[in-house]
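Notes, p. 3: input format for complexes.
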Amino acid sequence: FITTAYTSHPIPQCRASLSLYTALCTGPDGVHYWHKQYPYCGGVFQSPIDLQTQLLKYDPTMAPIGVWNYNLSGQEQLTLGNNGHAVKLSLPARMYISGLPHRYSAAQLHFHWGSPTLAAGSEHTVNGKRFAAEMHIVHFNSDKYANISVAADKSDGLAVLAVLIEVGEFNPAFDHFLKFINGVKYKDQRVQIPAFNVRSLLPARLDEYYRYDGSLTTPPCYPSVLWTVFRSPVTMSHRQFSMLSTALYSSSAQESASMPLNGNYRTLQKPDQRTILVSFLDGELGFQNGRLPVPASFLKYCWLLIIFASIKIYCIILMTHTHTHTHTHTHTHTV
Ligand SMILES: [Zn+2]
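Output follows (335 residues plus zinc ion):
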């Protein structure tokens, strides 16, 4: 989650070109030191978290996410930028989402990713599995707040759609901005690019997702985000992932030592007794009253038992019938 777009707090830079995410950074700016300058980062309801089975609760009332005005015209221009922490694309506020308690209008989207040698850089993980990358489409509550800066620190201020990305099939949707990524290699560089259908970056199914209350994943870590993490990941090709993970620097063009920009994800945060609502019945699970997960294997065995019992009963009936028939036949023959 990248905050520079809507907050007056500049994200601190580590000295000696060390990145915001470098654990070894001994200054006040490394990931383990965020809370010293930004108390919320050490507080509760932080993101990202591991979306683990024990925390899930099925909620059949959760509506599919509706995306509106996402199909932008190629005549329109969007700003692609490198803010030193991620690659970011500005979005017009007429784009909005429905299916949430308020109308949330779009502000920007950005990515978190792994390193060129380790395609594991998503912020959210699913039962410990870290995906290659993650996209965040950031929206603000436009029913209540004038803009994202005002909304950022309000408890109902933000809603983020998160898309997990794995390396696989080539995905033409990502090329809409990847083909311009070399224009923003260094921090603070920006280019104007033609707009496109932002819906194409999302997975096919918008009705299956995880939902929980969390925070910005960069300082100042306000606990103001209603998170929606889609269940299905989308893919990008190995080549597309390489472009994302090798093209950018967290240092500016003027700096003599260039610092590659990758591994820009925050460490997992504590669940803090939160429940993660899910809009779908997990294939690995059966939910009982939406609460107690019963392993799917158990349900499968129940079905097998019923089928086996049915076959056995059928066999017994068949055998009884055959026996009666033979007996009758023998009897007739004797007569
Ligand atoms: Zn993010």
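The pocket of zinc ion is lined by residues 1-2, 110, 112, 136, 217 (CB under 6 Å).
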